[in-house]
Amino acid sequence: MTASDQHPWGRVDEDGSVYVLEADGERLVGQYPDGTQEEAIAYFERKYTDLAGQVTLLEQRAKRGAPAADIAKAVTSLTASVQNANAVGDLQALRTRLEALASTVSEITEKAVGRGAGRGRAGGS
Predict the structure, then answer these.
(1) d(CA 57, CA 60)
(2) Residue ranges per domain, the chain?
């Protein structure tokens, strides 16, 4: 059985090169030459799990009302990290979750700006 049979998001070559499988093909994410194929995949899966955990924490912060500017900054940073992550997992799902967060932040910011503009007009009358 090959590594790709065992893992839907990546594979390991005989030389220990690890690839993530994405919609547009596969991408080299690193090497793990001194271990088994299972150890190599597990190492890069942990990197994915770390990224997924950061996205989950950010989602929780947004739901709890963290400042939109802080969330927006974190979304930008995490999006860059996920874009070319040296990790094995469903990276597209993380990108989708970050896009949803960015959209939520935009909506929150627009509402806040709208409320602020409304107060400015009311106060000026």
Answers:
(1) 5
(2) 42-124
